[in-house]
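User: Can you help me understand a structure? I only have the sequence.
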Amino acid sequence: MAKPRTTKKSASREASLRRRAASRHYTLVREGDVWYAVVADTRFGPLRTLDEVDEFLPKEQ
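Assistant: Let's start by predicting it. Here is the structure, written out as tokens:
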């Protein structure tokens, strides 16, 4: 049986969010099903979806 297409799409989105976070000196950490953003040794979260991560990260200029 074929894998769902959303897996590849979410992996691509995850990679783009990680690049955006790194450009702002943030680190994204995934623990189980939730995400945390680490900024200067301070953890923010939990962020439950990639949409929440996208909303939390500063927009690129």
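Now, to help you interpret it: Residues 11 and 17 are 10 Å apart (CA to CA). Residues 6-23 form the longest helix (18 residues). Let me know which part you'd like to focus on.
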